[in-house]
Design goal:
Length: about 200
C-alpha cells in the first residue's frame, strides 16, 4: 500500500472510530452504568468485531454488497430496528437484561456480532473496502485495513467507555442515573436518525 494511501487510511480510521455513532454511544452508556472494567468485553468486541467484518467484506463480500441493493437495504433496516430497541433498553434500564432480569453490559460476542447489524458499520465497511482493498492484493490490503481498525477501535471504544465512567461519578443518585440513561438512549436514537438521513 502506498504511503499516501496508508496515511489517508489512518486519518479516516481515526476520525470514523471516534465520531459519535451507535458503538460509541453504547460503550459510553456501558461505562456510565457498569464502569470501565465490566465494559472491557464490550470494548474488545467492538475493537475486534468491526475489523473482522471489514476483512470479510473486503476480501469476500464487497462485490456482492456493491451489486445487491436489496441485501444492503434489508441489513440496514434490520440494524435500525435493533438499534432503536437498544436505545429503548439503555434509556429504561441502562443495559441488556441478564438472566435475573438485571441490566448487564454487552459480552464480547454480543458486541462483535452487533457490528453485522450496525448500519454505520456496514456503510463504513463498504466504503472503506471499496477505496482501500486492492484488487491486485486483496488479502494483504484487507489485513492492513483490519489491523488499522483494531488499533483505532481500541483507542476509540476505550475513550468513550472512560468518558462514560467519568459520567458515572456524577450520576450517583437514582434520578441522575436515570437522566444519564435517558440521554444515552436519546443519543443512540439520534445516531439512528442521522444514519437514516444519509
Amino acid at each position: 500500500m502506498p504511503t499516501d494511501t496508508f496515511l489517508t487510511l489512518l486519518l479516516l480510521a481515526g476520525s470514523a472510530a471516534f465520531t459519535p455513532g451507535p458503538n460509541n454511544a453504547l460503550v459510553a452508556a456501558s461505562g456510565a452504568n457498569f464502569g470501565y472494567r465490566r465494559s472491557l468485553p464490550h470494548i474488545l468486541g467492538i475493537s475486534f468485531g468491526f475489523p473482522v467484518m471489514i476483512f470479510i467484506v473486503g476480501f469476500f463480500l464487497a462485490e456482492i454488497f456493491r451489486h445487491s441493493d436489496l441485501l444492503r437495504e434489508t441489513l440496514r433496516w434490520v440494524g435500525v430496528v435493533i438499534l432503536l430497541w437498544l436505545a429503548w433498553k439503555v434509556a429504561n434500564t441502562g443495559g441488556l437484561g441478564g438472566a435475573e432480569g438485571r441490566p448487564r453490559p454487552f459480552s464480547f460476542v454480543e458486541a462483535a456480532a452487533f457490528q453485522w447489524i450496525n448500519p454505520k458499520g456496514w456503510a463504513m465497511a463498504i466504503a472503506i473496502t471499496s477505496q482501500f482493498v486492492s484488487v491486485e492484493a486483496p488479502l494483504a490490503s484487507a489485513a492492513i485495513v483490519a489491523a488499522i481498525f483494531i488499533v483505532a477501535g481500541l483507542a476509540s471504544a476505550s475513550t468513550w467507555a472512560l468518558a462514560g465512567t467519568a459520567i458515572r461519578r456524577v450520576a450517583n443518585t437514582p434520578a441522575r442515573k436515570r437522566a444519564v440513561n435517558m440521554a444515552m438512549g436519546a443519543l443512540i436514537a439520534g445516531c439512528v436518525l442521522l444514519l437514516l438521513a444519509t
